[in-house]
Structure formats: C-alpha cells, structure tokens
Amino acid sequence: MKLLTLRVGSGSPENRLTVFVPIPSIMPMKPITRRRFIAYSSEATATIAAGSTVLGFPAIAEAQSPGDQIVLALIGAGGRAASHSTGMSRLPGVEFKYVCDVWKDRGAGIMQDLEKVQKRAPQRISDMRAALDDKEVNAVVIATPEHWHALATVWARQAGKDVYVEKNPSISIWEGRKMIEAARKYRRIVQVGFQNRSGPYAASARDYIASGKLGRIVHVKVYNMLDGSKWEPKPDSEPPAGLDWDAWLGPAPEVPYNPGRHLNWHPWWDYKGGTLADDASHQLDLTRMALGDPPHPKSVLCIGGNYAFQSQREVPEFQCITYDYGDFAMTCESGNATNYLRKFPGEVRFGDKWPHWPTSATRVEIYGTKAMMYLGRHGCGWQVVVEGGKVIDQDKGYFPDKWHQPNFIDCLRSRKQPNSDLEQAHHSACLVHLANTSYRVGQKQLMFDGATERFTNSEAANALLKPTYRKHYRIPEQV
Ligand SMILES: NC(=O)c1ccc[n+]([C@@H]2O[C@H](COP(=O)([O-])OP(=O)(O)OC[C@H]3O[C@@H](n4cnc5c(N)ncnc54)[C@H](O)[C@@H]3O)[C@@H](O)[C@H]2O)c1
Asked: Which region holds residue 37: left if phi is over 0, alpha if psi is between -120 and 50, else beta?
C-alpha cells in the first residue's frame, strides 16, 4: 500500500506534525466516482444539517449555481494548499485553473500533481486578481497566511466568486464582521477551514450534549498544549529571489524583509496571533459546535508569558484564558512548551485507536452535572466518562477533510450553506481575538458586548478591534 505524507498544522515547525496515511483511506488512487462523492458529501451534509444555522443570510440559492463543472483558483501554494489541491482535484468535475503564489519557488509540487490529474494544466500566477478577473473561475481556495484572508475573501466576493478560506478566517474582530457583510451582500458561499465541523463525530457530540445526557454543562476546558522550542529573533536581510515581499505583506504594516517573519509568521500579531490562532482555533471551534454554538462570551481574561524558554516572542509561549458564558465558564490553555504532550497520532486520526487523554495535547473536557465528555479533533471523536474512568458512551471519528472538501464543492452546486459557515467561524475566531486583546492590553479582564462587538470597559481594547491597513490593501468600511 502506498503512503502519502500529510502535513497537519502549519507554518512554524513547532506546530507541525507529519503523519503517514494509506492513500486509499483519504483519497482513492482512481478518480473518485460520482456515486462515492455524493455518498461522502451528503453523509456529512445530512449529519451536520440538523444543527446548522443560516443566521440571517439571504438565500444563497438566488445566486447562480456553477453547474457540474467547477473551476477553482488556489491562492497561496504552501503546505495546506497542497492538501486542498490534492483533495479537491480528485472530486468529479473539479479543476484548478490557477495556482497563485507571491513566491515563485512555492507550489512546484502542486503544479506537477495537477498537470498529471487534470485534462488542462493549471496556470501559475503571482497576483490573485488575475484569477478574480477570470469569469470562468467559480471559486477560490485561500490558503495564504492569515493577514491576507479577509481582504482576499472580500475581493473574491466583489468579483462574484465563492470562497474556501482557511482558518483562522481573520486577524481581527472588525475584519471578520466585514467578511460576513460581504458574504451577505454578494450572496456567495463561504466555507472556512474549520474542518471538524464536517466530522460526523462533532455532530454526534453536539447531539449527545443537547440530549442532556451529560446533565447541565457547568465547565469546559479546552487544551492546546503543543511542543515548542526557544524562539530566536533573526536579522533583516534581502528577500529571497522570486519573492514579492511587498505583496506578501499585503495589508500588514510595511517592514524590511526578515526571514523570521516570512518563514515563521505565527508568533506575530500582524500576521496570525500565535498558537491560539493557528491551532487552538480548531479546538475552540469544535467546542463551540459541540456546545450548540453559544454566542459571544460576556467577558474574557488572558494571562500569559514566555514562561518556558524566555523567548522574546510578541505572542507569548503560553496563554491561559477564561471566558464567561454566564451559566458556565470555559478555559483555554494554549502554548508551545509542553514537549511531553502529543497531538493525536495517525492511528487515532485515521484508525480505530483511542488516545491516552491525559497526555493528549489537543483535548477538550466538557463537564456536565452528570458526566464528563472527552472530545478530540483531527477525527479523534469523543468518550463519556463516569466515576472510576468507566466509558459509558463514545463515537470514534476520522480526519474530517474527506468530508469538508466535498461539502464545499457540493455547496457550490447546491447553493446550500456549507458546514463551516462564516458566521459561526467568525464567532469561533473571535474567541482568539478576544483573548489576544485581553493579553495585549495588559492581561486585563475585558467586558464584551456581543451585539455591537465592542468592549465596554477598555478603549485600549477597542483600538485593537481593527488593524491599520496599508494603502492599496485596505478593506473598506462599506464592503
Ligand atoms: N485547516 C487546517 O487544518 C490547516 C492546516 C494547516 C494550515 N492551515 C492554514 O492554511 C493557511 C496556510 O498555511 P500553510 O501552512 O500552508 O502556510 P505556508 O507558509 O506553507 O503557505 C502560505 C503560502 O501563501 C503564500 N502567499 C502569501 N501571500 C500571498 C498572496 N497575497 N497571494 C498568493 N500567495 C500568497 C506564501 O508565499 C506561501 O507560499 C494558514 O491560514 C494556516 O493557518 C490550516
């Protein structure tokens, strides 16, 4: 059996995990048949639909369906883009017409693979606007660093394209709201790369909790405790040949080229917002879904620091957050310092094995008045545990890209809301932004008005709601 190396996690090596999976289990070697595609997509769509919300979107059905043939453009040709080009190009009637990256050296493997599997070879471009101007393109898949997500999504909507945008969808609360406004105005489909929402195990966890079998939920603990190493600053230098540094920066502040920014953009406020944005965002989103998608919390407090390695990182190595939801509290512990904890291994993500929960770096614990649930992403699943560690209920999962990518393509044709719609993804992303804002204003408890999406006790925090954009790369107030 052939093996495929999948990079799970992104950007900085400290957040990456390489797993080996048998190819047939995630994608058949032969092109997927239409019947099998429908089985995949409708299984996930049906499972999720019971709990999905439309949240005031105008009927997307009014926008024209592209029909059977879907033409895509891939924007950003790095690690995550490779999973999307491989996964989506094998679905029936789907082709990538463009592969876009601002760095000439990226995406060679993606191009070669698409040339092999597609009738028509894709075109390599460096400015996404060439693809947005092409009427033949139905949708774009945005897998750039986070500081580009919102602007690229707004531009795509204005050009009449549907969008798959990677997580975290935004780097600020304001721009997340603008993405939603653009989706409503232009009536486009948006699937966010919170793929756990397409996992049947996430829907069964939600249904189990809603049934009341855990009792009333009184406490939730979200863990995202990854390994890490000391972060060292790097000197500025000339950009590598073939990289358009100005375009890479895009909406972010202008700074000289620095390899520590370009090749490790995670621990910078301007590009991402740390491990919390990169990885814990998946945990927070899965938890929100399991809890029935609660609205914004009333307050947030984030304490953190570079406790382990005393790095000079902007975004601290470790963050401990408390969210107040009124009738329960949720904590999130996120960091890059616990090398003895592990993300779920391949045999848990793609096989039948259960994890050892106490040493799992990415676990959620949901405490009810009757029992507690361990919940894991990456296809792990959930187990309900009572006194003595006895498991009384469980549902094992599987890595959910195999449902999430087809769900996007399915929704392009059906004009239904995808499993990870923008409104809920925005609420999940806001948990990251709220925590980072609390940390940045001096580790203070911030009171948040969910209706206006503004802080009520700190103007310093309100000043961080919206980034300062560079000319030519601004999201307008009116999208
Ligand atoms: N859902 C998941 O499980 C998952 C997993 C990994 C990464 N991600 C997300 O995917 C995104 C990409 O992550 P990655 O690990 O692939 O990063 P990466 O650094 O490997 O690739 C990003 C690419 O985008 C390119 N780029 C930057 N600005 C661009 C622009 N304006 N136009 C075109 N290309 C541009 C860069 O040159 C780079 O090649 C991130 O948002 C990350 O959080 C999600």
From this structure: alpha
